[in-house]
Design brief:
single chain; 183 residues; mainly alpha; 5 helices; 2 strands; 2% strand
């Protein structure tokens, strides 16, 4: 166009380069979705660590059972839910579609399925608490079924959004791959 201090090329004001400065939308989307998924994974890790702490305290009897109840059955398979999150994180550096697909499938198996089972397992106890006001298990003075239903609701939302954003990220990566094949 022009040298630093010299004259500009005829017919230009120097701003005609801006169309070349834009990043393709699927790349922008990929970066944004990766960021959102990472936030959800970190939230999942916090939930996972809290459940792990409850299980360790319950089994090792570090606190009395009226302080921290023994874990419900659904919590054991839910511990495997850390694996899909790790696969998701491993898929990000090189946009590895295979790892992301495995992460999505295993999220359904190791995260969502135990949460559904947990909601069904705790339902009779929640019903008893609602109808009769009786709770037999407690976590720091709160009924264990109420606390764990809160955990199930939050975890279901985290995993639901994680699957949604992962699907959109997968679509973004396929768009990028298809455009590369056209060239």
């Amino acid at each position: 166009m022009a040298s630093r201090g010299g004259p500009r090329a005829a017919g230009t004001d120097g701003s005609d380069f801006q169309h070349r400065e834009r990043v393709a939308s699927h790349y922008q989307m990929s970066v944004t979705l990766k960021s959102e998924i990472k936030k959800l994974i970190y939230t999942h890790v916090v939930i996972w660590l809290l459940l792990l702490a409850q299980m360790v305290v319950g089994h090792l009897k570090l606190l009395p059972h009226d302080q921290v109840a023994m874990p419900y059955q659904w919590e054991y398979p839910y511990l495997l839910s850390i694996l899909p999150s790790l696969l998701g994180l491993l898929s990000f550096p090189r946009n590895n579609i295979s790892y992301l697909v495995l992460s999505m499938i295993s999220t359904g198996l190791f995260s969502v399925a135990p949460l559904i089972y947990g909601a069904m397992e705790m339902f009779p106890m929640a019903q008893q608490l609602y109808r009769h006001g009786k709770a037999y298990r407690f976590i720091f003075g709160f009924s264990a079924v109420s606390v764990m239903y809160l955990v199930v609701v939050v975890a279901a939302q985290v995993h639901g959004w994680q699957l949604y954003y992962s699907k959109k990220l997968l679509d973004s990566w396929f768009t990028s791959t298809q455009e590369k094949k056209k060239k």
